[in-house]
Design a protein that fits this description.
The complex is a heterodimer of chains A (385) and B (374). Chain A is α/β, with parallel strands linked by helices and 385 residues long. Chain A is built from 15 helices and 5 strands. With 374 residues, chain B is an alpha/beta fold. Mean pLDDT of chain B is 82; it is low at 155-159.
Chain lengths: 385, 374
């Protein structure tokens, strides 16, 4: 492939590419500001914790005990009581209008049942339209109610259970202590922000590479390049190297924002990150070149890119853990460079993992990147020759 | 200025359709995109966490500690993937990602429990994926509480003193696809409509055909609406495809009025297309236009619309921004119609919002479009 590469010619083409991509100040902004916007969006918006779920309360009991249960709910931080009602129908109305997503109904005789040692029932209604929030809110509500019951009910009847509850704090008999590794506060940001690096680099690789060629074809200047003394290898390198450079500037930019703005720890080796990113970007370039060989217009290229990119993102574990996917998709995702790169990025950032742990992913990226790039360049030579 | 003419408008529309038909791949993708996205999202996105890989370090080795571990495996949420002999083995397992959680039962667990002292149990969870970790911890806590209640109440005739009877409305089985599919329609609309239309004017500029267009007597309102019509048709067909896939493949219920869906979608599409054309006319380059459209429409409608992530959790500034994300209101409509089965008495505000959005989008498009060259 390196048969006919002459540096002066290559340099001129690269200079032209840079100039064409960044000539427009708006394009410059796009290339460098867009990743930061995405990073901020993902950093701040992607948050699957449930806090302050809007709660509508119907308390038929009106006792000190029922109010105490509600206070426990409010103090948990997971629920925010937005309104009180008298009739159960009001809960349904609130859920219909979306003014609340959780409804609590405390029955008449709640305090009396609890004192008498009879089982007391609390109704929890959850708006399931947002199934994630609903699952988590339901879990928290059940926990709060059961714990309340064990603490209030347990003390009245059994001494040891009561002491257990008071002493343990967490639960009655068993003191459950949880520790989260790598991310003690369980903040979603720490997980998501490194992931954005992977998606942005892939998108830019695909987009800039494919459009760089297709734009020339659409405007008709590709023919001029063809009759110029540029060799195919020079053409390919001239089109892809500027993209690599831009991708690395973006990598630096995003990493800086992640470290300095979001204070995401970088526990592993920066050199490994750079090396893995280089292997990763090969796949992006290869796919971009491939798209450029099958597209005549930018619209076609853009649609094709989107068709490749979307499944890649969804099957990468970027937002949804791969291990929760159905088996077929889990296997399919093995062919997805983003998936492997995300394991590497997250491993390096969060766990401080090194080559000893990450070598399977690095190897996968190397194999995939080389294969895709070889395939695409062969095709590219055929279609342009 | 000449009067608006329907025949000129239709001529523009016809030209746009011819152009679309010459590019069958883009057209096919415009129709396949909603089906593909909905299938992928519907199958892949699941917030149900099952079969969490658990490593157990049981240093107590008593009947009581085995009971606790059985309670974990019996719940269906956890699967014991490894049994550890030493505490030091936990770290490497988590590092490799071989397990997500390590349950540590220290020596003296059964003794403490029997003596009425709090018996400690420790869980180490891989916090990397905070969401899954939080859900896993939640399950673990619930299991321990239930176990604990049984242990404390052992010997008494009572079951747990207070039971929580929870019921889920609208989406009784808490299926993720029920949540995703209706909301995804808004995103798909945004993607297809804004992205396709963001190319139209920019393409004319890039290819130089804008000069030809400028030389014709066609009015800019005619150009905008002429270009809009084919994409509006594509968008409406896409909604149909999305609804059919959602219902046919995922069994998502549709409880509201189809007419309302059609009406609100119509205005939502108009607004989105207007926005796309506005971007196209403003930036005049296809690369810039698609990227701007992506940032302006696709990302907000995916991230800031409440589709997958709770708006209530976002920082104040982002929460304010979500108020101008049209998809936020459209998702209320689609979820309301699909899952809640509510009608105009609840959704009229969003309906008005869609009309306002359409008016704003189209005004922007017409104002930004200039025929003058230079």
């Amino acid at each position: 492939m390196l048969d006919a590469v002459r540096w002066p010619r290559l340099r001129e083409l690269m200079r032209k590419e840079f100039r064409q991509t960044l000539r427009d100040p708006r394009a410059k902004r796009l290339v460098f500001v867009a990743p930061v916007i995405q990073l901020l969006l993902f950093g701040y918006a992607v948050n699957t914790d449930v806090r302050n779920a809007k709660t509508f309360v119907v308390d038929h009991d009106h006792t000190a005990v029922s109010r105490e249960l509600l206070a426990t709910f409010a103090a948990s931080g997971y629920f925010r009581i937005v309104a009180y009602g008298e009739r159960p129908a009001e809960i349904v109305n609130a859920l219909d209008h979306g003014t609340a997503i959780v409804g609590l109904e405390i029955p008449l005789g709640f305090a009396a049942d609890l004192a008498a040692g009879r089982q007391a029932k609390v109704q929890v209604l959850v708006d399931g339209t947002s199934s994630n929030t609903a699952t988590v809110a339901q879990g928290y509500a059940t926990l709060i109610i059961q714990r309340f019951g064990i603490e209030r009910g347990g003390t009245g009847r059994r001494g040891d259970g009561g002491t257990g509850a008071r002493g343990g704090g967490e639960t009655a008999g068993v003191d459950f202590r949880a520790r989260a590794w790598y991310n003690p506060n369980l903040s979603s940001r720490v997980y998501n922000v490194p992931g954005v690096i992977g998606t942005i680099m892939m998108m830019m690789g695909l987009l800039l590479t494919s459009l760089a060629v297709v734009r020339e074809r659409e405007i008709g200047t590709l023919e001029q390049l063809m009759v110029s003394p540029l060799s195919p290898a020079e053409l390919i390198l001239g089109k892809t190297l500027p993209v690599v450079a831009i991708a690395f500037i973006q990598l630096t930019l995003i990493t800086s924002v992640a470290l300095l703005w979001f204070h995401i720890p970088l526990r592993g080796s920066f050199v490994l990150l750079i090396g893995a990113s280089l292997l990763y970007i090969l796949s992006g370039l290869g796919l971009g070149l491939f798209i450029s060989t099958v597209s005549n217009t930018q619209q076609e290229a853009f649609m094709s890119m989107f068709f490749i990119f979307m499944p890649f993102i969804i099957l990468s574990g970027f937002m949804y853990p791969v291990e929760n996917m159905p088996v077929v998709f889990r296997f399919l995702s093995l062919l997805n460079p983003i998936r492997h790169y995300l394991v590497i990025v997250r491993g390096i950032f969060l766990k401080g993992a090194g080559v000893g742990i990450l070598w399977p992913q690095v190897l996968a990226l190397a194999v995939m990147g080389t294969a895709i790039l070889l395939f695409a360049t062969t095709r590219f030579r055929k279609t342009t020759a | 200025m000449s009067r608006l003419s329907l025949s000129r408008l239709l001529a523009i529309a016809r030209k746009e359709i011819v152009q679309l038909r010459r590019d069958p791949r883009s057209l096919a993708m415009a129709f396949l995109m909603p089906a593909l996205l909905i299938l992928l999202f519907g199958y892949v996105i699941t917030f149900d966490v099952k079969d969490i890989r658990l490593a157990v370090l049981d240093e107590d080795r008593s009947a009581r500690s085995r009971e606790l571990v059985d309670a974990f495996t019996g719940s269906g949420y956890f699967r014991v993937a490894a049994r550890l002999a030493r505490y030091g083995d936990a770290g490497p397992l988590l590092d490799r990602g071989a397990v997500r959680m390590v349950l540590v039962v220290p020596p003296g667990f059964a003794r403490d429990l029997g003596a009425g002292r709090p018996a400690a149990v420790q869980a180490l969870v891989d916090g990397g994926d905070a969401n899954t970790a939080a859900i896993a911890l939640n399950y673990a806590r619930a299991i321990v509480i239930a176990y604990s209640a049984r242990a404390v109440l052992r010997g008494t005739t009572l079951s747990a003193p207070v039971s929580a009877e929870s019921r889920v409305w609208y989406n009784e089985e808490l299926k993720s696809s029920n949540m995703i599919v209706p909301g995804l329609i808004a995103v798909v609309m945004m993607v297809v409509a804004a992205m396709l239309s963001s190319l139209t004017i920019a393409r004319e500029w890039e290819r130089g055909t804008m000069e030809q267009l400028a030389a014709t007597p066609v009015h800019r309102v005619e150009v905008i609406f002429g270009k809009l019509i084919p994409y509006l048709a594509i968008g409406l067909v896409d909604v149909g495809v999305a609804v059919l896939v959602g219902r046919g493949v995922f069994g998502v219920p549709f409880r509201g009025s189809a007419l309302w869906l059609l009406g609100t979608t119509f205005f939502f599409l108009l607004g989105t297309l207007g926005l796309g054309i506005f971007i196209s006319a403003a930036v005049k380059s296809q690369l810039l236009a698609t990227q701007t459209a992506m940032i302006a429409t696709y990302l907000p409608s995916l991230l800031l619309s409440g589709l997958m992530f709770d708006i209530a959790n976002m920082p104040f500034v982002l929460r304010m921004i979500t108020h101008v994300v049209p998809a936020r209101y459209f998702i209320v409509v689609t979820r309301g119609l699909f899952l809640k089965g509510v009608g105009p008495h609840v959704l009229w505000i969003q309906g008005v919002g869609m009309i306002v959005f359409a008016a704003v989008g189209l005004t922007l498009a017409v104002r930004a479009f200039r025929k003058e060259i230079g």
